[in-house]
Each structure stands twice: as C-alpha cells, then as structure tokens.
Amino acid sequence: MGWIVYGDRVKIALMDSGIGLLAAAAAVRRLRPDADVVLSSAPESMPWGPHSPEYVTERALAVAEAAAAHRPDALIVACNTASVHALPALRARLEPDLPVIGTVPAIKPAAAGGGPVAIWATPATTGSPYQRGLIREFAAGVTVTEVPCPGLADAVEQADEAAVDRAIAAAAALTPDDVRAVVLGCTHYELVAERIRAAVRQPGGAPLVLHGSAGAVAAQALRRIGAHPAPGAPAGGTLTVLLSGQEAALPAASLTYAEGRLLQAVSPAR
After folding, report:
1. pLDDT above 60: residue 176
2. Beta strands 238-243; 246-248: pairing state
3. InterPro entries under this entry (predicted)?
C-alpha cells in the first residue's frame, strides 16, 4: 500500500455512545487537518458500561453502520466499553471493506515507566476480566491500583462541572500517594485530563504522567489506510455529526471542551 499524502482525500469516522470520541477526533484533525471527519454516537443510550455485552454490541453495530453509510476510509471505536464487548462483531460486519480500530487502555506504556500506576475506569471496567488480563500481560511486576470512577463519564457527557469535580475528587482520594502515572481508561476522561492532573497530588511536586489513548488510535487509523500524517497541512476537510444516525450539530456540551471547539471550527459536510 502506498502512502496517502496531503492532497489525497482522507475520511475517518469515529463512534462512541456519547462525546468521548471528541479526544480521538481532535487527534485525527491534528495529524491530518485536511481530513474529513464523521462522528457517530447514540447519546440517548449513554452510558453503555452498565449494560449487558449483548446490548452494547447491538447499539455499537447500529452506531457503526450509521457511520459506515458515509463511506469512511477507517472507523475508530473511540469507546473502551464497545471495544471490549463489540469489537469482534464490528470487525465481522465491516471488515475488510472498512478497517475498524479499537481502543485499548494505555496500560503498556504506563507500566513501561516502572510504576506505581493507577488505572481510572468506569465501575463496570474496573476489576473486569478484560482489564485484569491487560494488567497481567503488560504490567507484570508493576504496582497497579484499579480506581473506579462512578459518575465521571456521565458528568463529562453533561458538562456538569460540579459533578466532574466531585467524581474526580472521589477517584483522587482512592489513588495512592506514590502513583507516578494514571491511565485514563475511559475516553470521556481525556476531555478533563488537566483537571485530573491537578487533583492527583505528587510527593514533592513531581509531575504526574497521564496516559490516554486518543493519539495512539488516531495514528493507528492513519497507518491502517496508509495515510501519512501531515500535521502542518492547511486546514480543510469537513465534519459530519450523526446522533442516532441522523445528521445534527455538535451537542452543546461538546463546546465546553477544547477538543469540541477545535472540531466546531471545521466546515460542516454538505
């Protein structure tokens, strides 16, 4: 496969239950300012975490097929829950015609720093066989603390700043003082990364390292389709927003976050 360079049309779709896809979408735009971006979500069913794997798979397939109808070059599953439960079904339905890129918590790079490490995740993911398997595979010999964050994804989705602060404070209280890195195990959390950094105090003021997945999945999507990153390219491309399959504007809560404001500046698709 040859490289797709600036000037060749690139269209990347992203899916999530809600606005957690903003971080990865913004990362795509930073790597390819000329890319067309499709955002597909189903906020009325958010959050997916408390639901059964069968429910998550059904909803994820519907959201993904709405995105696929716009004929993107690749689809990013910008949701940890959907990646855990629905990725095999999504790939079976859409590949090889449409490459599907899942999201995995950044436990491996966090553990490479030697730890101790905390993993902030939804209550459904915390302690799950999936997350425990990643810890065994990538963080053997490293001290890892799993920190449940009830209500944080919902608060981010609703842009409820007081609720965000309460949820972050509760998770910070469960995070050991000697933790040097925090894995953001839900895509929504990346939208409030700096507030998390400010809440987790380090002995002696040492810098806390946060590990998200947005940049990695954006880069992987471009690699899968042979698209060369061109962060210096002139801005262009279009933005399509799908809410439960229907074209719409970005949800108002999106504009609370820098990532949403970056995407709002993109021309809407016609």
Report:
1. yes
2. antiparallel
3. Asp/Glu/hydantoin_racemase, Asp/Glu_race, Asp/Glu_racemase_AS_1
186 neighbors 212 (Cβ within 8 angstroms): no
Q: Does 2 fall in a domain? A: no
Residues 131 and 157 in one domain: yes
Phi, psi of 150 (to 5 degrees): -60, 135
Average pLDDT over residues 91-120: 94
Specify whether 34 is located in the same domain as 74: yes
Render pLDDT for 204-262 as a digit per residue (tens, 0 to 9): 667 789 999 999 999 999 999 999 898 888 888 999 999 999 999 999 999 999 999 99
68 Cβ partners below 8 Å, 6+ apart? Answer: 13, 75, 94, 98
Whether 41 and 62 have beta carbons less than 8 Å apart is answered as: no
Residues 221 and 251 in one domain: yes
Of 201 and 167, which is predicted with more confidence? Answer: 167
CATH number at residue 49: 3.40.50.1860
Structure tokens at 238: 């279009």
Q: Which domain does 188 fall in, by range?
A: 107-212
Residue 5: band (very low, low, confident or very high) from pLDDT cuts 50, 70, 90: low
**Catalytic position from the list 25, 79, 179, 239:** 79
Q: Does any domain span residue 15?
A: yes
Choose, from 167, 186, 200, 217, the residue flagged as catalytic.
186
Distance CA 14, CA 74 (A): 8
Instruction: Report if residue 6 sits inside a domain.
Output: no
For residue 79, indicate whether it is catalytic. Answer: yes
- At residue 1 the predicted structure's pLDDT band, cuts being 50, 70 and 90, is very low
